[in-house]
Amino acid sequence: DQQVKQNSPSLSVQEGRISILNCDYTNSMFDYFLWYKKYPAEGPTFLISISSIKDKNEDGRFTVFLNKSAKHLSLHIVPSQPGDSAVYFCAASYSGNTPLVFGKGTRLSVIA
Amino acid sequence: EPEVTQTPSHQVTQMGQEVILRCVPISNHLYFYWYRQILGQKVEFLVSFYNNEISEKSEIFDDQFSVERPDGSNFTLKIRSTKLEDSAMYFCASTPAGTRTNEKLFFGSGTQLSVL
């Protein structure tokens, strides 16, 4: 039962271009969404989040967009840098301190 | 910057053996978690722990699993009799008090458990 889906296992982008990572969810109860980044041999690290009351949240080069009607969110990285190469996990939760539900991740490769 | 520390980084064990995975959460954090990721699959929630008791657990966290906070700093995950399908990367995580517990988890670098 995949409540959070990242359908692209990998993505390659040229340095300086935009990276767009997508995530779909099925549980309409989710009201909080997060992106985590994971480098090899390290644990996931928090990147950016968005509440369901918003449709956009921006932090420097990273912007997350939320489309509640489509149950879809995306992470935009502009401009992409080689250091952004990592696995990106989408995660979701709903009110009441429920555990995060993760997607399978998308491996981003930024090519210099 | 404070971080969640996990030991060992790799653990190899025979099927049926007991293993204990260790974690030192960030010192002022009060909520603790174990997640795991089987190779190629999603990161899955196992258990959350607060105020010296389990606050929530998943279907994966059956009677073979237990967690303990034996002292003021360590947080352990014990698997009593390991199975082949327990092979995974196990992540410990923590969050501070005063936040929604599902916000912004701080993860350790993981323990890769291989059951032979």
Output the keywords:
heterodimer; A: 112 residues; mainly beta; six-stranded mixed β-sheet; globular; B: 116 residues; seven-stranded mixed β-sheet; four-stranded antiparallel β-sheet; 11 strands
Structure summarized in a few sentences:
The complex is a heterodimer of chains A (112) and B (116). With 112 residues, chain A is an all-beta fold.
What do you see in this structure?
The complex is a heterodimer of chains A (112) and B (116). In chain A, 0% of the residues lie in helices and 54% in strands. In chain A, the strands form two sheets. In chain A, strands 2, 4, 5, 9, 10 and 11 form a six-stranded mixed beta sheet that branches. A five-stranded antiparallel beta sheet of chain A has the order 1-3-8-7-6, with no helix packed on it. With 112 residues, chain A is mainly β. The radius of gyration of chain A is 13 Å and the shape is globular. Chain B has 116 residues and is an all-beta fold. Chain B is 0% helix and 52% strand. Chain B contains no helices and eleven strands. Chain B has strands spanning 5-7, 10-13, 19-24, 29-37, 43-50, 53-57, 65-68, 75-79, 88-96, 106-107, 111-115. In chain B, the strands form two sheets. In chain B, strands 2, 4, 5, 6, 9, 10 and 11 form a seven-stranded mixed beta sheet that branches. A four-stranded antiparallel beta sheet of chain B has the order 1-3-8-7, with no helix packed on it. In chain B, a hairpin with a 6-residue loop joins strand 7 and strand 8. Classes of the chains: A mainly beta (112), B mainly beta (116). Chains A and B meet through strand 4, strand 5, strand 9 and strand 10 of A and strand 5 and strand 10 of B.
> What is the number of E strands of chain A?
11
The portion of residues assigned to helices of chain B is under 10%
Total helix count of chain B? Answer: 0
Overall mean pLDDT of chain B stands at 91
Structural class of chain A: mainly beta
Q: How widely separated are the two ends of chain A?
A: 37 Å
The largest β sheet of chain A comes out as: 6 strands, mixed
* Rg of chain B, nearest Å: 13 Å
Shape of chain A: globular
Count the helices of chain A. How many?
Answer: 0
Number of DSSP strand runs of chain B: 11
Low-confidence parts of chain A: none
* Distance between the ends of chain B: 36 Å
Strand content of chain A: over 45%
Radius of gyration of chain A: 13 Å
SS-derived structural category of chain B: mainly beta
Share of helical residues of chain A: under 10%
| Sheet of most strands of chain B | 7 strands, mixed
